[in-house]
Amino acid sequence: MPGSICDVLPSAAALLGVSGAADALGLAESIGDVDRVMMVLVDGLGWHLLPDLVDDAPLLASVLSGGAGRLRQLTCTFPSTTPTSLVSLGTGALPGQHGILGFTLNIPGTDRVLNHIRWRDEPPADEWQPLPTWFDRLAHAGVAARALLPEWFIGSGLTEAAYHGALFVPTHADDDYARRMIDELNAAPGLVYGYTADLDTMAHVFGVGSPEWHEAAARVDGLLSRLAESLPANAALLVTADHGGLNVAADARIDLDADPRLAAGVRVVAGEPRVRYLHTQPGAAADVLAAWSELLAGRADVYTREQAVTAGLFGPVSPAHLPRIGDVVVVCTGGSAVLATAHEPPESARLVGFHGAATAAEMAIPLIELL
To answer: What PANTHER family does this protein map onto (predicted)?
Structure first.
């Protein structure tokens, strides 16, 4: 079984000497004695996408061929979406425990849907996501943990939920991001964390395999190459991702708001196109389950909340988090997606690339170690 995104920060903390941190990935054996670790999360750098980008990415091509660093396969948590994965990375916990169970979630007791990317003050981050992060634990152990993030990320609910305890270093679009990362690494021992969304953005807007996606791959590879070339002898670079992705063809898209049979009995729609949470009108759950199971047969797995939890999709689920999961859970299989054009911004329906479901193309991610 591959390791998990949940193992990355505890293993890095163990490498940096934090007592009680479990090195489940065996980083100490493969990396040796270092006093500083640079970690970069490349949004959308799925394991199964690596062969498609090597023509534009010399460093990643060398890693894939065995010529540089060490490469292994991990898995992200479900749903395979950025908010869930970032909090799984930060806390080392499965989604059922940390509670960030999707891209958007219904706030129990209301008809409000929380978009985790746009989340600011409500609900309070420490209530919506109650677990400590590994950035907290590093700080408590006296190990500097710095996160270089775009200025507008800082203070958001998702940033607090995933990275609480880090020293936040704001960055700007015109910064030399590689230089700033290197300067932070050289300034003091500990962990320096970075993030880039470029590859994922191009996959969503233009599609995996598009010219724009390949250009983003070249930019990401250039960033990683500069970081690797500048590593001091007492440092290691870890590169991982939050999910993979795939393109969804026009004829594989189902719009629940265009089909009265799918909209019937649904009170609140949450999740995202590859994983839908349907919160139903009182007494309508069984009818919604039956209609969706029939109409999406062969294109999605349709569960009750209880079935999804029993199947272990989210890991053990805290009772407090159960109401965040829909009464009906729809997990797309193959290359389908469920749009919700009356519930979500119109740009969502115009995207080309998607992720969120449980296919290998979405769940498998790399871990790259460079010295």
So the answer is: BIS(5'-ADENOSYL)-TRIPHOSPHATASE, ECTONUCLEOTIDE PYROPHOSPHATASE/PHOSPHODIESTERASE
Tokens of 234: 């007492």
Residues 6+ apart with CB under 8 A from 12: 27, 37, 39, 134, 191, 238
What is the number of alpha carbons within 13 Å of residue 56 lying toward its C-beta?
18
pLDDT, tens digit (0-9, with 9 covering 90-100), for 156-183 = 999 999 999 999 999 999 999 999 999 9
* Confidence category of residue 1, pLDDT binned at 50, 70, 90: low
Is the peptide bond prior to 79 cis by the omega test (within 30 degrees of 0)? Answer: yes
> How many Å apart are CA 152 and CA 7, to the nearest integer?
28
pLDDT band at 50 (very low <50, low <70, confident <90, very high): very high
Which residues, 6 or more positions from 127, have their beta carbon under 8 angstroms from its beta carbon?
none
- How far apart (Å, rounded) are the C-alpha atoms in residues 14 and 20? 8
Residue count of the chain: 371
Q: Please give the helix or strand (H or E) that residue 364 lies within, else none.
A: strand 364-370
What pLDDT does 288 receive? Answer: 98
pLDDT of residue 326: 98
Phi/psi for 365 (5° steps) reads -135, 155
CB 148 within 8 A of CB 192: yes
Instruction: Give the model's pLDDT for residue 232.
Output: 95
The C-alpha angle with vertex 328 and arms to 323 and 334, in degrees rounded to 5, equals 125
Burial 185-210, CB ≥16 within 10 A → b, else e: beeeebbbbbbbbbbbbbbbebbbeb
The four Cα atoms 113, 114, 120, 125 give a dihedral, to 10 degrees, of 130
pLDDT tens sequence across 134-147: 999 999 999 999 99
Nearest alpha carbon to residue 335 among 352, 311, 320: 352
Cis peptide before 130 (omega within 30 of 0): no
For 267-313, what is each residue's pLDDT tens digit?
A: 999 999 999 999 999 999 999 999 999 999 999 999 999 999 999 99
Question: What DSSP character marks residue 99?
Answer: -
In sequence order, what are the residues at sequence separation of 6 or more whose Cβ sits closer than 8 angstroms to the Cβ of residue 294? Answer: none
Work out the burial of residue 79: count CB atoms within 10 Å of its CB; fewer than 13 is exposed, 13-18 middle, 19 or more buried. buried
